[in-house]
Amino acid sequence: MTSNTLKSVFWSGFRDGSPFILVAVPFALLFGVISIDAGLDLVETMTMSALVVAGAAQFTAISLMLDHAPTFIVLLTALAVNLRLAMYSAALVPHLGKTPFWLRALMAYFMVDQAFAVAFKKFEEQPAMSQAHKIAYYFGCLTPIVPLWYVFSYVGAVAGQKIPAELSLDFAIPICFIALTAPMMRSLPHFVAALVSVAATLALIWVPYNLGLIIAAILAMIAGAQVELWLKRRAAHD
Length: 238
Prior knowledge:
Layout lengths: L2 H15 L3 H17 L4 H11 L2 H12 L4 H26 L4 H10 L2 H13 L5 H12 L3 H14 L12 H10 L6 H16 L7 H27 L1
């Protein structure tokens, strides 16, 4: 296997991950702006971005801080939001489980929704890819996204107050998650889980500290799993 081949796979991943720049940049800018508004200073904002590297959890934590939620609620909720990364990791084990531990730790640190979605789709479509190619492709996917998260979190924190309000940077959040979720809606359990999560989130909007999101996520996972089990039982009887 030549280095040129690995480079081509890396750049293939880079190209596939690049469209998410359009949402990652305003997403990061918005986090920088909101974190300063919430009372964090520049060092605290950048430390949070560097340690967490997870926009959804960071926005959730900032939102709870603005609501003056207890610290343990902030930590618990942010952790619950980030539990999806554990599911991402489990999904990647069949493809990257034999990678050396230090490299898996590095990949886990840099894991973001966009890189996972693109890489997992590729691995499922091309199961014959070698381990080295999968690693190169994975890092290619995250390279156009993660560095920009750091850079524009900083830009948002430093210059956020000068960004005109009419730019409405918060458009990036729903667009980002729609782009991530839509391609994964490939089976009945996926659709049921999505519908339950939306319905439960709306029904539990009254629950304080956004804890309704956690309950909705648990209900959605249970619903999706039950539908999948029902389909398997039905197939066994046919």
